């Protein structure tokens, strides 16, 4: 939760923000668009998707799912995730390149390298770099995971500002609950 909070907080503030319908998240996929329509726009509607309940700490609990599609996106990403709310409306999009295998400098001491699948580094030999930037009404979080000087996974998560505010609101509540539990066990 803390990593997600630190990546989003420079770009917006916590708030239950129900505005923003229609923000272009990714290639014509708009915030709160029906996922079937989004799949059609992206040309993946005929594909066989997999669907799962989202378990990302900091996202609204028990309300989000992701629909995953295999394919070729932007020339190198091999998976696309449409993250939806309880009404099957798109709230964010993530692209994943599971096999980039590019050599390069290692860097970063983050833990999370894939927020939608909740993938964390499991060894000190793994290095994770995360960065975020605001592009209009969308925050893009890019992560890269290296092991032994080889890039092993790359992600690009696109979150519209209204949903980022909701996530920050959830992380704020979640982190304060954790801090209260820790304080209660110390006393």
Could you walk me through the main structural features you see in this protein, from its secondary elements to its overall organization?
By secondary structure, the protein is of the alpha+beta class. The chain has helices at residues 2-8, 35-42, 161-186, and strands at 24-26, 29-30, 50-53, 65-73, 77-84, 90-97, 112-114, 119-120, 126-135, 138-147, 150-160. The strands form three sheets. Strands 3-4-5-6-11-10-9 form a seven-stranded antiparallel β-sheet. A two-stranded antiparallel sheet has the order 1-2. A hairpin with a 2-residue loop joins strand 10 (138-147) and strand 11. Helix 1 (2-8) runs antiparallel to helix 3 (161-186). The two termini are 24 Å apart. The mean pLDDT is 89.
Short summary:
With 187 residues, the chain is α+β, with helices and mostly antiparallel strands. Helix content is 22%, strand content 37%.
What's the SSE pattern?
HEEHEEEEEEEEEH
Secondary structural class:
alpha+beta
User: What is the helix tally?
Assistant: 3
Strand content: 35-45%
Low-confidence stretches: none
Specify the biggest β-sheet. 7 strands, antiparallel
Mean pLDDT: 89
**Helix amount:** 10-25%
- Radius of gyration over all CA atoms, rounded: 17 Å
Order of the strands making up the biggest sheet: 3-4-5-6-11-10-9
First-residue to last-residue Cα separation: 24 Å
Shape: globular
Number of DSSP strand runs: 11
Helix-strand blueprint:
Elements lengths: L1 H7 L15 E3 L2 E2 L4 H8 L7 E4 L11 E9 L3 E8 L5 E8 L14 E3 L4 E2 L5 E10 L2 E10 L2 E11 H26 L1
Antiparallel strand pairs: 1-2, 3-4, 4-5, 5-6, 6-11, 7-8, 9-10, 10-11
